[in-house]
Fold:
Amino acid sequence: MGTRRCMVAALVLVLATTMAAQEPTPAQLFQQAIDIMATRGDYPAAIRMFEGIAKGKDRNLAARSLLYVGLCYEKLGKQGAREAYQRLVREFPDQPEALAEARVRLAALARPSAAPPSLLIRRVMQGPEADFQGSVSLDGQQYTYVDFSTGNLAVMDLASGAKRPLTDKKSWSESADFARYSVISPDGKQVVYSWFNEKSSLFELRIVGLEGEKPRVLYHNEETISPQPAAWSVDGRQVLAVLTGKDGSSRIVWVALADGAVQVIKQFGWRRPSRISLSPDGRWVAYDVAPKEDEPQRDIFLLSSDGRIDIPLVEHPANDRAPVWTPDGKEVLFLSDRTGTFSLWGIAVERGKPKGSPALLRRDIGTIVPMGMTTLGYYYGLSNGTYDVHVAEVDPATGSVTTPPHPASRALVGGTLSPAWSADGKKLAFVSGMGPLGFANDPLALTILSLDTGEQRQLLPKMGSFGRLRWSPDGQSLLTTGQDVGNRGGLFQLDPRTGLVTPIVYSAVLQGYPRQAEWAPDGKSVFYSALGQILRRDLETGEEKKVYPAMVFALSRDGKWLAFHEEDRPAKSSVLKIVPVNGGPTRELLRLPGSGAFTLGMAWSADGRYLLFVKSNSQDRSQPHEVWRVAVEDGEPQLLDIAMPGLVELRVHPDGRRIAFSAGVAKPEVWTMENLIPVLEAVFEKDRATSPKARTGDSKSAR
Structure:
């Protein structure tokens, strides 16, 4: 027995020695903490490591660790820096180098000129990878986005800039499938995203691993046209999402990763939230919604993650939207136009209830799309590009340009779109005040320019967004696609005198927004495209008839012919065709290599002899788009001397000489606000110091 005990004791000693050898030494941990601080910028994690080392027996390492704790707190703008330096001075008088540095830092902190914490704002990226529907990992290292050259979901390492696809679609000629919204899991190992399935013409939820695992379908339902992922549960077993149905209603749900089972926690009608955000502890969902059906203004609400509690968080007559939780769960950030333009605001939250009143964090933040917040910063997208309506003149007989393109309006520059000539040729209507993804500081305006006098008149239709304008044959109304104030997509009529909006058909019927619309010459019916079909709708009876399976089309001025395009994927080419409106065989006019050659816009000439179209020679939208025309009789193409980046939406004047179009480049960018946590602490610490009476929140009684 004695021998056996000796052997067991020896074995235990060997195992203990081996395990000890495998554990990092305090010096190694110290170096790792420095790396986390300097390379990754994760100051909270570095503080935890330095504080652990400071408890060790190595006094030199302990003193240096406290020094670094103070430096990290300074980076974060927190009060803990002073306490760390004071502890070093008090407990480590035998470490002269660290002691001297601590005294220097304490003196600097004591200076009256020490500035309060301020936001650090920097651009993360710009260009085609700047996808506002993407996501940033919690550690700020990985970024997912849609590669618009293929439709694939891709990931970028923000430190090195290296990028790679996560899905394996080869090209647009292969299929029309593409990725959309994406959210990285808290552990940074998986991504949940929306994927458009061309075969079903529906979006579905999918999951893919960041380390090469194959994508799998998480959720697919024939009654759901748009699932939008928002967050992962704390345990990583569920995904929080908004599901929009074919009837236009929406739901906040949990989707189980194991089997795709859905648990509904909040049901909406057609007034869907623009953004939902899950608290870090997984207990609360912040969302925005319009409390009134006929008003665009939104309020912020808190919903328990099981759906049992639903309370107002921010109620105000202004438009409050896009809530985002801070990483520590102490505040909810949101956008509000209560100061006149959209600014960034925050409100403290404690135990699922608002604490105090909202505080202004950054005034006039601009036209942004919030993307979420990590331990490093608040991420958002914005567009610094411009769009303008231009007019050029051509000789209808030769196609030569007699007057080069010039802006249609000198007074409105950088934000005009969607031109439309009146039937009598005396007016040009267009949309002004556009923002990215329909998210703007100011409402969209309908501008009507008199070609005789140069006078511009503006109206503010009660709509969330609108575009692709078409004058009625009698000049009494405008046809438009877009969204009403409740975000219901559809087809609408606008009164050019009063701005009154009359819905023709809603997306609940269409199961998707109309791509475009045209008036029939008699003004009694309209043609529009939705879900791959061109339909004709009688305005008096509401009766609809399918005309032809296509999306992008142009109706001839006499109403007898439809021009449309098709993708010939086996041949890797795009085909321009025409077909009689009342039925008959199609005729091919022109075939061009590649996909999407005719999707940027087409229009008939005034005499019906030509079809004009926009052609792009590159996936890069910053490269010029060209205007061509093809003879209807013999299919002979001709390049016109009109080319501009982002040229779309061709419109031919009734005289056949003037051509209006939109042109511009979006220039999307992703930005981050760093040092926001200490700014929040400073703001809300000051708020907590005020009297209880001064800290009452906004309420309905304030309206």
